[in-house]
Amino acid sequence: xxxxxxxxxxxxxxxxxxxxxxxxxxxxxxxxxxxxxxxxxxxxxxxxxxxxxxxxxxxxxxxxxxxxxxxxxxxxxxxxxxxxxxxxxxxxxxxxxxxxxxxxxxxxxxxxxxxxxxxxxxxxxxxxxxxxxxxxxxxxxxxxxxxxxxxxxxxxxxxxxxxxxxxxxxxxxxxxxxxxxxxxxxxxxxxxxxxxxxxxxxxxxxxxxxxxxxxxxxxxxxxxxxxxxxxxxxxxxxxxxxxxxxxxxxxxxxxxxxxxxxxxxxxxxxxxxxxxxxxxxxx
Length: 283
Hints:
The protein has helices at residues 9-15, 18-26, 45-56, 64-71, 119-128, 132-145, 149-158, 165-172, 182-193, 238-251, 261-265, 269-282, and strands at residues 6-8, 31-34, 37-39, 61-62, 81-84, 97-99, 109-111, 114-116, 200-207, 210-218, 223-227, 255-259. The chain is α+β, with helices and mostly antiparallel strands.
C-alpha cells in the first residue's frame, strides 16, 4: 500500500481487480472522491490534496484557505479544497474543489510536504476575500504562526490591485501576533471600528505571589477586556481559579470586562459603550 494513503485508478487496478476496488469502496475501506483517484477514509488534508493531484494528473499548488491550513493558520474553513496550478491554467471542475486561475505572486513553499502559495501571500488572499470582521483574525494568526510583519507588508504591496486589498491594508496596521484566538481578534476589531483606542495585548500584571496576564486592555486606565468562551466547568477547579485570578486583578486596581460571542457577533454596542465609559472615567 502507498504510505501517502492516495492512489490513482491505474495504481489500484495494477494491484487488484477493479471489482475488488469497488467492494472496498462499498465497504468503506476506500473512498473514491473523484474520477481517477482513491484514498483512505477520513483522509487528512494533505492526503486529499494528493488524491486530487492524481485525479487531475497535473501539478497543483494549494492556495487560499487550504494553503492557510497547511501553513498552520487555518482560521476560516469553507470545506473546499482551494488550488491553483503553477502556470495558472484552468483544470476541469470537481466536486468540493475551487480552482483559482491565477499565477502565484511569489515563489511557492512546501507546507506539510505539499506545494502551497507563500504564507504571507496566502494570508493576504484569505483576508482579502473575507468579511471585514474576519480580516484581523486571519492576519493575527498568520503573524502568530509563520510570518513577520515585514513579510505581511511586502505581500500586501504585491497584491495592490487585488479585490479586497484596501481592507487588508487598513487592518494590517493593527495585526498582532500576540493575539491568542480568532475571537479575541474579532473583539479587537469591534473596539477599533468603534474608534476606541487600540488596546495593548497580553498585559503583564504582578499581584502578590503571582504573575497574571490580561488578554487585552489599556494599562494606563487599568481596564482589561477578555473573551469569555463560556466553557463548561466540570468540577476541575478552573472556575475557582478564574475567580481567584479575577479577584487578584481587582485588588490590583484593574476593572476586567468580559466579552461573549453574542457581544462580538450580534450586539457589540453595549460592550463598546461600557468600555468607552470606563476609559472616559479614568482618562
